[in-house]
Write a structure and sequence with these properties.
This protein has 13 helices and 18 strands. With about 450 residues, it is α/β, with parallel strands linked by helices. Strands 1, 2, 3, 4, 5, 15, 16, 17 and 18 form a nine-stranded mixed beta sheet that branches. The relative contact order is 0.17.
């Protein structure tokens, strides 16, 4: 089936910014041509995009889909006083309450909201210690039904005991095999691991072995809070990234989430590794953990939401404004004098996420609009009130574009949002299912106390 997006202002690349007026010809799941005036084809569906802006589909490079059911979640324990207490009293309780139904409902809610916001790819880091087996299948199936491109991993950790750690590793191994069999065209897999401070040497070694044997890197949290660095230094004598490097966890190049407390030496190690780091500004602000020294980290810094929805317009805007505020108030880290507080920075971060996903899918042109690229496209009903060119794109992105302008969305050549309505499922049904699943999830959560895992219980071998 051929589709022509006619008369659009087309952002063919975010980094470097490239803008042109053209017709986009889509044939099957690919962009077939970019033409100043594509000839009308009687067999083609023509979508009028005059006055509209067409972008590559956005990528959320680090998220937790299950948190879609946490919105408004009741909380009755003592208020957390640290990031580790946030984990023990909120998120590590929530993941223990997840079952098949809540995993399924969360995937549908998260996938729907991503597409409606113009995000066509989710890179998910999943944990459900009482529902491990088959959990990645559920996510893949539900996101696939919605036509969301996904990169999935199960979060291996020692915090729920050795049996759960082994089961998590086996879930990654099994799912990697399913993806390799080729029956999930929109889904790929990584090897999930929580963070250094909840990984024993033997569990980390098992994750690294699986990454090497599968050729797929780790997806792991790194230095999100200073507690991760303190634990690594106390228990292993080195900082987090050095511990991962010594364990072989930087080959194949991993996806590292956060990196808030990386120091200069770790930043240099990161730049030399070929890894990609995901900056999650809204989550870092919400947890009051700080902000990654992205000015020291080079070009492989992507953007993610860490589970706070999947609106990459909002995420990129917040990240930029946070950088500006730090520079203006003198609060920027001394490790980050190369503070990239300029409107173009978020575009580079979004492009880095797309490049990473393209590497995982074997699609080097993913995230660009060019012949042969996957047809992941977003049409915004954004009639620019000032000139929109390559030179002005960053300003429009930061101060004009938002998810409210998203009109149509295409994933792998299929229209999934048309005239602001999801077409791959019934949004009202998804919302009803979400409310029912959330109610039951919250009932189970009420019976679960603070997670007992403590930093002084990190196994040392």
């Amino acid at each position: 089936m051929m589709t022509i997006l006619h008369g659009a202002t087309v952002v063919t690349s975010l980094d470097p910014a490239e803008v042109m007026t053209a017709d986009i010809v889509v044939d099957g799941d690919r962009i077939a041509a970019i033409d100043s005036s594509a000839p009308a084809d009687l067999g083609a569906t023509v979508i009028d995009c005059l006055g509209c802006l067409v972008l590559p589909g956005n990528v959320d490079a680090h998220t937790h889909v299950y948190s879609a059911l946490a919105r408004g979640m009741p909380y009755e324990l003592a208020a957390p006083r640290s990031f580790v207490e946030i984990l023990r009293r909120i998120w590590w309780r929530l993941d223990r309450a997840l079952d098949e139904a809540s995993i399924r409902a969360s995937a549908r809610v998260a996938g729907m909201e991503a597409l409606l916001a113009g995000t066509t790819t989710l890179v998910d880091h999943h944990a459900s210690p009482h529902a491990i087996d088959g959990s990645l299948d559920i996510l893949a199936e539900e996101l696939g039904r919605l036509e969301v491109r996904a990169v999935l991993a199960y979060e291996v950790t020692d915090r729920d005991g050795p049996a759960a750690a082994r089961a998590g590793s086996e879930e990654n191994r099994r799912f990697l095999g399913r993806v390799a069999a080729g029956d999930l065209p929109l889904t790929r897999a990584l090897v999930g691991a929580h963070a250094s401070f909840t990984l024993s040497d033997s569990t980390l070694e098992a994750c690294v072995d699986l990454a090497r044997s599968s050729g797929r890197g780790l997806h792991v949290h790194v230095a999100e809070d200073a507690a991760d660095e303190r634990a690594a230094e106390a228990e292993h004598g080195v900082r987090v990234l050095e511990r991962l490097a010594r364990a072989g966890a930087l080959d194949p190049p991993p996806l590292l989430a956060h990196g808030v407390h990386l120091d200069r030496a770790e930043a240099a190690l990161f730049r030399a590794s070929g890894a990609t780091l995901v900056h999650n500004p809204r989550s870092n602000m919400n947890n009051a953990v700080g902000r990654a020294p992205i000015g020291l980290l080079g070009s492989r810094v992507a953007l993610g939401t860490d589970g706070i929805g999947a609106d990459m317009f909002e995420e990129s805007r917040t990240g930029y404004l946070r950088l500006l505020e730090e520079r203006a108030t003198g609060a920027a880290s001394t490790n980050d004098e190369a503070n990239p507080a300029r409107p173009a920075w978020p575009l580079a971060g979004l492009a880095a996420g797309a490049r990473f996903v393209g590497e995982v899918f074997g699609e080097p042109s993913l995230g660009r609009i060019e012949p042969g690229a996957p047809a992941d496209l977003v049409v915004l009903d954004y009639h620019a009130p000032t000139p929109l060119t390559a030179a002005t794109l960053a300003g429009h992105w930061t101060f004009g574009l938002s998810a409210r302008w998203v009109r149509d969305v295409m994933t792998a050549g299929r229209i999934v949002v048309r005239d602001r309505r999801l077409v791959t499922a019934d949004p009202k049904e998804i919302a009803v299912e979400g409310r029912l699943a959330a109610t039951r999830l919250w009932e189970r959560l009420a019976a679960i106390g603070e997670h007992p895992y403590a930093l002084d219980e990190v196994p040392v071998e």
